[in-house]
Amino acid sequence: MAIWDKWRKGLERTRQALKARLEDLGGKGASREEMLDAVEEALITADCGVAIAREVRATLARRPQDDIPAGFREELGRLAGAATDLHFAAQGPTVWLLVGVNGAGKTTTAGKLAALYGRAQGRRVVLAAADTYRAAATEQLAIWAERAGAELVAGRERQDPASVAFQAIEQAGARGADLVIVDTAGRLHNRQGLLDELGKIGRAVARAQEGAPHEVLLVVDGATGQNALAQAQGFLGAVPITGICVTKLDGAAKGGALLAVRRALDLPVKLVGLGEGIEDLVPFDPAAYVEGMAPNFRSAEQ
Ligand SMILES: Nc1nc2c(ncn2[C@@H]2O[C@H](COP(=O)(O)OP(=O)(O)OP(=O)(O)O)[C@@H](O)[C@H]2O)c(=O)[nH]1
Ligand SMILES: [Mg+2]
To answer: Of all protein residues, whose CA lies closest to atom 14 belonging to ligand 1?
Structure first.
């Protein structure tokens, strides 16, 4: 599937919900105020949050009425920010660490990342199963490794996750692998003991490989929207987060959550999950995001 189609399909629900609120405005001959109200409500419905919705309304209020639809797209683009690449090591294996609350989509994202940046781009990938709390977690990652054509390094159940991550990087170096993706156990952002454990994983990774971790990605469920801020603050104290992966943007008509998350965290969104399949993780592309989100609607004056 072409990449823009993937975005359009993933954001289908949000686009339809926005469309339902905006589409008829032209036909009904809505006034300027009615149009601005509809835009604000539509953005709140799409989970952008009240602050962003009000801000967009205020900006659009300064434009001629027939510019509102185009302005709406421009505003989404401005709020989406720029695309930011993932960092690779200059030498030796690159190490990316995935962190986040329970069920955010870390393991799934690890598998999809291995497919996206692995074989297809000529890299050998090691998936490190540093979620040692549950045997099922390692099994789940093993399935993804198989699908993505990556190697799996797993520890024993209950083994210190930091030592699993360390071993995985050592083994990756010895085997000439290019990329190590470390999956960690889900943890709540207010459980200090578990956050300290994450700090320990980060330090182990740094000892195993110079410059590592090259990315620490906070995986956030798009549906969590506003709660992402509290999550990030907890995690930021434990490890240096370099970017966000917003998952499950396809799950509900809440694609605007990405804007709320980006705004709240002031960190770049680097990846987006648009479905459960192996190909449903994409690097963040602001233009494609706007294309996926914004319905065509007309102003009465057009
Ligand atoms: N629709 C949709 N589902 C997703 C996406 N990403 C992950 N999921 C689903 O979310 C659920 C949880 O994903 P996991 O990858 O197991 O989450 P996790 O963060 O590893 O969970 P823990 O290890 O328990 O903390 C699974 O059912 C995934 O298929 C996405 O982008 N879209
Ligand atoms: Mg997991």
So the answer is: 105
Using the 3D structure, point to which of 221, 241, 261 is the last residue of a domain: 241
Residues paired with 130 in a beta bridge: 184
Q: Write the pLDDT tens digit of every residue in 152-206.
A: 999 998 999 999 999 999 999 999 999 999 999 999 988 999 999 999 999 999 9
C-alpha 251 chain-centroid distance? 13
Ligand lying closest to the C-alpha of residue 273: 1
- Tell me: do 178 and 111 sit in the same domain: yes
The pLDDT of residue 194 = 94
Nearest atom in ligand 1 to 274's CA: 31
Q: Which residue do the tokens 């470390």 mark?
A: 182
pTM of the predicted model, to two decimals?
0.94
117 and 66 within one domain: no
Q: Which of 42, 39, 77, 83 is nearest to 61 (CA)?
A: 39
Domain that holds residue 189: 94-241
Domain boundary among 58, 83, 108: 83
Q: Which atom of ligand 1 is nearest to the CA of 186?
A: 25
